[in-house]
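Extended Data, panel c. Modelled sequence:
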Amino acid sequence: SWSIFEDRILYQLLVFLQPPSRHSFRLELYGGTRLPERCSNIRVVLECTCLKQMGNIPCFVHPSKNNEKTQHSPLLQTLCTGSYLDVEEIACWVQNLVQTAWEHLPQWQHWQLTVLPSSHSCRVLLTGPSNMQLCAVLVFAVEQGSP
């Protein structure tokens, strides 16, 4: 959605997170009675790939005899607390990604990017010529019923 406030345009974008291969997201309900309101109830499950044709990609769940070392999931190590998605880690990661990507866009040299503090979304403010401002809020979601 978008709206206009005086000299500022506000864009709100819903960003659906998709699990990488060999992972799935599982929504865990509070006592099975209502949907949770926060990302902290989305468990990341490591999928077994032993019987799938995945080439030389090792299975997270069952280490092979050739590779006795347990494989670690980069997703669990960077964007999770324990086995659950951590919305604050996701927000921080996306904010860093946006900032890094911005530095590689020379066509935007006349615009200034400011990452606004937020622990549950990614908020950026773009200030352009004539002090025009665009504010974008990226809100993270997981589609219910997705693999």
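Strands lie at 2-5, 8-16, 23-27, 42-46, 80-81, 84-85, 112-116, 122-127, 133-141. This feature is highlighted in the accompanying rendering.
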